[in-house]
Amino acid sequence: MSSISDEAIVLSRIDYSETSQVLVCFTRNHGKVRVIGKGLKKSTKTRFAAGIDLLDIGHLTISARHARTEQLSTIIEWKQTKSLGGLRDSLQRLYAAQYIADITSRLTEDWDPHETLFLALVNALKATSTADQVLLSVVEYQRQLLQEIGSYPRFDCCMLCQRRDHLSHFSSFEGGMICQHCQTQQVEKKRLLPATLSALQHRASADNYAGAFKTLNYHISHQMGKESALAGKLLV
Ligand SMILES: [Zn+2]
User: Fold this and answer.
1) Would the pLDDT of 210 be above 80?
2) How far apart are CA 223 and CA 147, in angstroms?
3) Ligand 1 centroid to 137 CA: how many Å?
4) Is 140 inside a domain boundary?
5) Which residues span the domain enclosing 59?
6) Which residues surround ligand 1, an ion (CB under 5 A)?
């Protein structure tokens, strides 16, 4: 039976029956794949198998039979290669990592390779697993994800008249800033504080990261059709 092997990160996990799991994994060379593991959770006499966990990083081998189709591919083998135990040391880190996994899963297509994004995802999860201020690594990853899928907004000029000053609002629909003269004609918009705009333009200091996170999350939510359930938990 032909198979496909790749590095993978588990983005979501559903326990399918007592012994099976359905996983969404992001792989290095094949993009996002949906897979089913049968018998993964079955314990043996010598080994207690807890199955594969959310955010695990490992080496995945799947059957090539359903590759590049909408059907689930069967897991042949899984070897965990990295443990980011730090993610589970604090609730904020875990929420941040789950948010990162959620937006990745929802903004990428099955079997669409994005190696740069895979590497960014590994780095973001590593940084989050040791972070005191998790929003920093989340904002950095929001930027990378939007750049990789070609939806990174413009923060340097008005999308309607191209002027570079008096930028007061952000519009997800227009894909960037709107100036105070044009904003009256724009229905979908969000007012940005100057400090937030500055953080988005210059990658400014940590104290502006909440505003940057909210703005990029607003844009990502529009791309996804709804907001990630984890977003609110990162702003407490
Ligand atoms: Zn304008």
Assistant:
1) yes
2) 13
3) 32
4) yes
5) 3-83
6) 158, 160-161, 179, 182
